[in-house]
Amino acid sequence: MKTLRSDIKKRRVRKARKERRRLVVILAAIFLMIFLIGKLTSAPEEEVVAKESINQEDATVVAEESIIQSAIQPAKQKRPDGKPTGKVVYLTFDDGPTTLTDEFLDLLKEQDIQATFFMQGINLQKIDLQENVKRATEEGHYVGAHSMTHNSKKLYDNGQFVSEMSETLSLIQDITGTNPKLVRPPYGSAPGLKSQQIRNEIIKAGIKIWDWTIDSKDWAVKDNPNQIVENIKKQTTTDIEVILMHEQLQTLQALPKIIAFYKKNGYEFGVYNDADHFYLNFQNDTRL
Ligand SMILES: [Zn+2]
Predict the structure, then answer these.
(1) Nearest-CA neighbor of 95 among 159, 208, 184, 170?
(2) Residue 60 belongs to what domain range?
(3) 177 plus 64 within the same structural domain
(4) Which is more confidently placed, 132 or 28?
(5) 282 lies in a domain?
(6) E-assigned strand segments in 138-202
(7) Of the residues 157, 246, 274, 285, which is catalytic?
(8) Given pLDDT bands bounded at 50, 70 and 90, which one contains residue 212?
(9) Domain total for the chain?
(10) How far is the CA of 22 from the centre of ligand 1 (A)?
(11) Is residue 114 within 8 Å of 269, Cβ to Cβ?
(12) Cα(219) to centroid of ligand 1, in Å?
């Protein structure tokens, strides 16, 4: 009797254990299902994240490839009209050298930007200003000519344009050792260079002309550098811009904001060089 009872007890204990095990298995199965359902519903989100990271990898690869490409290509790619591809702004400064030239050079150096200067013969002849003309070319800037006299009557009415520009270009060569061909006509090529004959003479002399796409009118706002910035912003409409400025104090003061504006808008800063010339003149003469 005793053994029978203990047998029954043992059987009950075994049965209870079995049921506990079954409960554990069922609970485990339920947890597993919940886990799987959760995973299934969150899958699209994870896929998006994965796609995004792939895109980022692609972008990195593309960026790396373009860095390699730009290292291989000797010159900047050009459009059919000879202009560089992408957004490029050329800062140009007329009427120097002046006592401010070194400050312009300091600022440009600080910003790691090269610019194009058009200097006037009468100023180039001042011995104390010549050191900064040389410095400009040594620091990668282009120095072109802006005539000897800056006198409209002499240049355009009396036909001194070519002789004055040639004289100015040789002065630059004497000072810097460079051999520039580019000039900026005082007051622009229109109407001064309207005559076909004078333009033929310019071509014969191997001289190139650059006007501008943006007139900053910096000379007109002596005490208001911000107005120069506004004038330039308003006229910025295309990928390639050439800005007419002068070596004046208000321009120097406006320059950091002008540079910041173009950096923000994704422009590179171009500097003229004779090998990559493209025509830019108000006479629309493609030979110049
Ligand atoms: Zn000028």
Answers:
(1) 184
(2) 1-74
(3) no
(4) 132
(5) no
(6) 142-145, 182-183
(7) 246
(8) very high
(9) 2
(10) 97
(11) yes
(12) 10
